[in-house]
Amino acid sequence: MNKIENQFEDLLINKFNFSKSDIKAFKKNIENVNDWDSIKHLELIMAIEEKYNIKFPYDKNFDLKKFSDFIKLIKNLQK
Prior knowledge:
Blueprint (H helix, E strand, L loop, with lengths): L2 H14 L3 H9 L9 H15 L14 H12 L1
């Protein structure tokens, strides 16, 4: 994994108490994570914006369904 992936995984573990199995499920689809809902989804987006000092386009927020979607968008917004 690269630096952004490691940081993102740490964010999921530390802020959202993700287990390794939650992260594995998230890599397939966020909806596979137990007790995940739209509020947690928005909290995750806000946490990412704060951590990486970026702003997600509003129209993309709910298009983000898996780990790689978030990583790709973070990388694109950091350019």
